[in-house]
Design brief:
With 333 residues, this protein is α/β, with parallel strands linked by helices. The protein is built from 13 helices and eleven strands.
Length: 333
């Protein structure tokens, strides 16, 4: 990145400890809140997803700053970002790229598609055909793209932020379970409160222009150091067992046809570590896990027809798991 950092970001190399990382991450959230007002909890979870290397599905109504959130996060972290508008006529090559003949050399050269970015916004992903949706799967899981027998590594870090409208179904293709499971968590944003919406309009008046984005707070290298630090955050064995018990409950609870996969447990582990880093701790506490349980587990639960008829929801299954599974007592809490 050639973008010049603000002077206060130049000391990141002198802040390698957990408290220094938490301070910088707090500044990222503060910077994002200048443009996405009243959604601090959502922004914290989105940032934790980036630290954990987790793909995110944002499911909410139009006009709630889903696109702005992805753009703002990329800008604050100094990362590249590409947006793909998913439509019924979108082809896999429109995402991954394709080989074209270079008349000067007489060779076919790979023209890389928009998937080659640090943060890829897959807007209204459920409007594309299953074949096109599948083109994203290899990238999400393997961090690579294969075209004409050649494999191309994606930039690191790599994160897919997908959006879909929960109320429009005409002309859409519901995401299959295998693809839903690739998303570490599903997040809503929600409408702002009245006073927050007043603040949104007031700040737009003060800026006198559209398209404003936050300033860069940390560098990609600084983000990489934070990700490395997160891998060293201690997780008590009892908390590991707690994660397994929560995931296991979603498979055995009444009314569940298919529960969460082991990938859900891995996502909870990585997100809990990221939350500890955000809070300036070098160890995970039970609340770090509980804060993400709904977001990680609900979209991975498939209910039986009997549950649908009685109005039971996946959220109720997860809430039941949080009530029933004993919360462990761990050192440092």
């Amino acid at each position: 990145m050639n973008r010049k950092l603000r002077p206060e970001t130049e000391g990141i190399d002198q802040e390698p400890d957990g408290e220094g990382h938490a301070h910088l991450l707090g500044r990222v959230i503060d910077e994002l809140e200048h443009y996405i007002i009243g959604k601090r909890a959502f922004l914290q979870k989105l940032l934790c997803s980036q630290i954990a290397g987790i793909h995110v599905l944002i499911e909410d109504f139009p006009g709630l700053a889903k696109t702005l959130a992805a753009k703002s996060l990329a800008r604050a972290l100094g990362l590249s970002m590409k947006r793909i508008q998913f439509t019924a006529d979108l082809l896999p090559a429109d995402i991954t790229g394709s080989h074209l003949l270079d008349r000067n050399t007489g060779r076919f050269e790979m023209i890389r598609g928009p998937i080659f970015a640090n943060i890829v916004l897959a807007d209204e992903i459920n409007r594309a055909s299953p074949k096109t949706q599948a083109a994203v799967l290899e990238a999400m899981e393997e961090h690579q793209v294969t075209s004409e027998g050649e494999t191309f590594e994606l930039p690191w870090p790599f994160m897919v932020v997908a959006t879909q409208n929960p109320i429009e179904f005409e002309g859409t293709f519901p995401l299959p379970e295998a693809e839903l499971d690739r998303f570490g968590l599903r997040l809503p944003i929600g409408y702002p409160e009245a006073e927050e919406e007043v603040e949104i309009l007031t700040r737009r008046i003060e800026r006198r222009r559209d398209g404003a984005l936050p300033s860069q707070v940390i560098s990609p290298d600084g983000l990489a150091r934070m990700q490395e630090h997160a891998e060293r955050i201690a997780v008590d064995p009892d908390l590991v067992a707690y994660i397994v018990a929560l995931v296991g409950h979603t498979r055995t609870a009444a009314g569940v046809a298919v529960g969460a996969s082991p990938r859900a447990g891995l996502a909870l582990l990585k997100l809990a570590r990221a939350k500890a880093l955000l809070d300036g701790r070098d160890y995970v506490v039970p609340d770090d896990i509980g804060d993400f349980a709904r977001d990680v587990l609900t979209h991975r639960i498939l209910l039986t027809p009997d549950s649908w008829s009685t109005g039971r929801t996946a959220e109720q299954i997860v809430d039941g798991a949080l009530r029933v599974v004993p919360v462990p007592k761990v050192a440092g809490v």
